## 1
Amino acid sequence: MPTVTTDRRPSDGPRRLATPGDLRRWSERCRAAGLSVGLVPTMGALHAGHRSLVRRACVDCDRVVVSIFVNPRQFAPGDDLDRYPRSLDADLDMLADEAVDAVFLPTVEAMYGPAPATSVCVDPSLTGILEGIHRPGHFDGVALVVAKLLIACRPHRAYFGQKDAQQCAVVRRLAADLDTGVEIVTTPVVRDRDGLALSSRNAYLSRAERSRALAIPAGISAAATAFAAGEHRSQVLRNLVRAPMEAAGFDIDYVVAVDAESLATVEDVRLGCQILVAGRMGTTRLIDVIRLGIDAAPLGGAGPQGSEIPGVTGSQGSE
Ligand code: AMP
């Protein structure tokens, strides 16, 4: 059995764990030593959005493991699995800088073996809508890999970005329904200076496409500003998002206003409801989200009204 220690801040970078068994043994040692464990699942190509999850986990937990695994099961046919960006050396440098304790780097074989026969399905009311329509099978892949990570790691907390709002809702249900005992922590969207939400997929955008993609933060800023001024009609808010996206040439998949937990669409938009956006700029599919009355408008213009929700302090707040 490989030696697994629980030392914090290893001088030679995060400890590398290769198999679910390695992850389990590392985590068991931490727990046995009375240390809390945080898990940050990622697909690598790390950026400041991932860094924000890692930093939050390092504040909350005694030990932090980041998984880097481009999960083939969450890519639908025709998705970008083959060209998904990979930058392991830079990722490991970032995680060493952040003093992450361990990094889980499984191969597809180590994760799934030759012929896995088990699936994990979260109810279609959460998974068969929005991303589930445009990326068939996506959430079955997400649910399977997250369940496997939670079982192998048994973290006290697992960290997910609000940017993937539907994923957050699906993972919260999965973690609760399977009695994992894991606290699911979600953190706000991190944006570039120009307002575009950071994404590994932004690397696909040409210069001109990237500039046109700013229609998304412009649109959700307009909606946030209108909401702050008292506009609660979903259709009006959605049109404020759609108009600049259409003008910029986006092929829009959806612009919806939803309840954050159930993801049910709402006509009368209330504090904490979310506007979810997805569209294609050229060959690059982008998603974004704003929590109305909580997140600051990406381009300014509307301050958060977070005081009505205890503990929420604006776009850098958390749930
Ligand atoms: P990914 O590597 O794309 O699977 O993302 C790993 C985690 O980072 C997910 O929980 C994402 O929601 C989160 N994440 C990705 N982009 C951002 C961002 N711009 N701000 C905050 N979290 C993000």
Note: Residues 69 and 213 are 27 Å apart (CA to CA).
## 2
Amino acid sequence: MEHAHAAITPAPGAPTGPGLRPAGGAPFYAEQGGECALFAHCFTQQLPLLIKGPTGCGKTRFVEHMAARLGRPLITVSCHDDLSAADLVGRHLIGHGNTVWSDGPLTRAVRSGAILYLDEVVEARKDTTVVLHPLADDRRLLPIERTGELLKAPPEFMLVISYNPGYQNLLKGLKPSTRQRFTALTLDYPAPAVERAILEREGHASPALAARLVQLAQALRRLTDHELEETASTRLLVMAARLVTSGLPLRDACRAAVVDALTDDTETVRALDEVVRAVV
Ligand code: ADP
């Protein structure tokens, strides 16, 4: 999202896309710039969505917010390197002397017209992305080999996947045949004004505390681009704000929630600590 267009979430009650309920009743999400409308258009056009962005920048919260505003149930799966196609689609379970079919989260989402969110999809085994293909293009079909069923996704079903295109994922990536089935949205850490608003709301920070933490994040993000796999995320700032609000001194909170959370390397800890001392 372009930071130049960043704005705090539109006034509660102001829908910004087709079929959207007011933002007020949904989990709090501060918009970075137009992503709520994009999501709503994808939903009505039955297009799957790929959300790219660093860890802790708000991807999961965004999907939770949109599911509530579209009035659809949300099923979330955190992908890992052991996640197989059967984990998503379902399997036969043996119990009380007979076998019963048990739907996996993907099948449940298709049957019930839910929004299915696959978090960190590049972590999953390659065979899992293959089961997404016929669902992600205009066929919108889920073949269940084991039961011989062929499910047609209802219009309310939506497939959303996310991944963090940080350098550790460069090699894994998504196969072109998979990614080209998805509309794509890039999120980044929110612009300073938006991030301050998030810290005030989520971390119960005063405006002054929010401003200092955002300043710190900006300094760390400049520094750590080259030295760390991941840098100070909005999630870590929210945690620091909560510790301060709870009574911990600011530097201790930053050490615990940001510095030690980011690295185990003593040299890097020292470098980050210096930035903390210079800024807060
Ligand atoms: P991701 O899925 O990108 O790793 P999350 O959505 O879990 O990140 O965000 C982590 C936390 O940061 C959330 O629980 C929330 O407190 C806060 N947060 C980050 N971005 C936003 C945002 N735009 N609006 C509201 N809260 C946010």
Note: The CA atoms of residues 6 and 264 lie 34 Å apart.
## 3
Amino acid sequence: MKHFLTLLETPADEIIEMLDLADQLKQETKQGIFRPYLKNKTIGLIFRKSSTRTRVSFEVGAVQLGAYPLHLDAATMQIGRGEPVQDTARVLSRYLDGIMIRTYEQEEVEGLAKFGSIPVINGLTDFAHPCQVMADLQTIRERKGKLAGLKMAFIGDGNNMCNSLMVGALKTGMAFSCACPQGYKPDPKVLQFAEAYDCFECVDDPMTAVKDADVILTDVWASMGEEGEAEKRRQVFEGTYQVNAALMAEAHPDAMVLHCLPAHRGEEITEEVFEAHADEIFEEAENRLHAQKAIMLTLMGD
Ligand code: CP
Ligand code: NVA
């Protein structure tokens, strides 16, 4: 019985196997080949937060695999009125073959996995966004032909994206540098994991982090659930934590730029850099579909 809760507990060889499967499924999709690998299976997609990409790519991906996806808005479920996760997990396990959940606390995802008897996929928590990072790694490998030996840099909030990118990059042999302001560093548990790697650094200065980077990523200054801190965060991040032309000049001349989206142009990234790398960014968004099909198939396939 396997779950996909964070990349911390996903072995490196399984990450690579799922990326290979994602590439295969992408090729099949491009050729119009849709094999019903998950025929007659059902997956529940629980959302406590907004979503465009995650919802649509999971629903379409499940249908393309022959499965039936149920969109479950937590606000209209009993879990949204306080029904315990232990009970929700045991009930849903009797109807469904898998659960994807997007929520606030990582503990809720872990709880579904602990008390249920079907695979659980983390579709974003405040702690991690592992599905997004699988798509990011797929996009980098497609465009650069490899992962190991490249350098990834992340600029901005040490949030769910930064946490998951750090683990995904280091486990696949990439060097990783992040520049995050004091008070907005990545999660201590993830830092502890990363500090065992020589090719890891977490600094304050973005110019230092992007030096010779092959891939640069950023994310919003205030994530979902942090709307009330937006102004305070703006004052901390503005003027320094932005992917712009001056920052790009420090990176490798062929550096890619990725963004999980939605992006705030003029905040964490300039319009100019965003549009110059739009092909990469929208390929990254497309790869959510292929990467998540690989995750569903790995967890829910016979
Ligand atoms: N990147 C991402 O997860 O997008 P959504 O919030 O639209 O799902
Ligand atoms: N860090 C962002 C990612 C959105 C896909 C958030 O959690 O809102």
Note: The CA atoms of residues 4 and 264 lie 29 Å apart.
## 4
Amino acid sequence: MTSAVRFQQVSRHFGQVRAIDGVDLEIAPGEFFAMLGPSGSGKTTCLRLIAGFEQPSAGHIQIFGETADGVPPYRRNVNTVFQDYALFPHLNILDNVAYGLMVKGVGKAERLKAANDALELVKLPGYGARRPGQLSGGQRQRVALARALVNKPKVLLLDEPLGALDLKLREQMQEELKSLQRALGITFVFVTHDQGEALSMADRVAVFNDGNIVQQGTPQDIYRRPRTRFVADFVGSSNVIAPDLMAALGGQKRWASLRPEAIHLAGDGIEATVEHASFLGAATRLGVDLRGSRLHVMLPAGAPVPDVGAGIRLAWQPADIHYMDDAA
Ligand code: ATP
């Protein structure tokens, strides 16, 4: 099948800075794809390369099987939703949403109908006459989405679109974005530094570090089988166990990861000391000292919580130990 987006050994260098360096990437049509990584790891540069705001220093990009080399942004069938929404403050909401169609020369009646339909899609019918300044942050975010969707792009790029929203609204918008994407079948490519957001929304995730993709896979893959220490540390709250401790605990002398929820209290387990307990609502997270290393243990709600300072015994299934490729 033709990929929606394909990178072949794509690099983008700014002088000495290798913003991205030799990236291979395939995004399937209709996929919800997340680019996850710390600040400066190259996610936004990748998105801008897909949009056509940047050109590769080396390598090739294809969009739905056609070369994007030298193709300007407006001829790519790709739209971007920016983090700051980039709405025109002096235009009302309907004209903001219809703007792209006006530029393309679509007639007034047709473009206003399309803009109204798009506002309905993002659950803002009846807001067309307002100005951006008269909307909440969450509503402005929806307008930005409607403005991109009205062009019926084949690929929608979203650059931290929920970053400016408070937690509750962000969770609500995560669910809505996901449903909308399913309903429309458009390929969504989403940049975030929030691992929870990437894992909960995406069909597949690419983890970026230092201008490279260090792992790609389903959220379950990335979470349960991090390939490197960096991925284990960055994605989720995994315990990273050094080779010496792993060997002392009867395992291999290699770096390993172990999820806090895979550790439980057991009378015949390995001795540890409770140093910290945080009540999280649905669970309690313990910080424990195990032979000089700090590990986290997630206790399910309702389980008895040991006192700070208490000696406890911990156990896990050998299958929950995940050895990593390297110590990177
Ligand atoms: P953030 O989450 O902070 O947006 P990011 O992962 O999206 O980070 P990029 O914005 O892609 O990272 O930047 C990757 C690297 O390239 C950074 O070191 C950045 O400073 C550099 N960079 C990006 N754009 C330019 C530019 N126009 N000129 C010079 N350096 C740039």
Note: The CA atoms of residues 241 and 256 lie 5 Å apart.
